[in-house]
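Here is one chain, start to finish.
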Amino acid sequence: MSSIRPMIPLLLAAGILLGGNGLQSTLIALRGAQEGFSASDIGLMGTFYFAGFLLGCLAITRIIKAVGHIRAFSALAAIASVGTLLLVLVIDPVMWCAVRL
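Its structure:
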């Protein structure tokens, strides 16, 4: 048990992150339906999320090599936070797809 004790904060943080990500994906679909977006627009938003995930996986090594892992994490966390706020401020399916990318 003592060997897993240092891992508890990391596992808790990962659980909170995954829970928040799952809630955001579900709530974006529900909010889009409430705002009158078509089913294809809502599906396209989900597609753009995974396309952005793929592009991020391909680009992150160059970003980390250029600025380091701490600055890369800080900048990308700030961009993700701004993107989440934009989902509340701008009600447009095209913008929501761009934010999810």
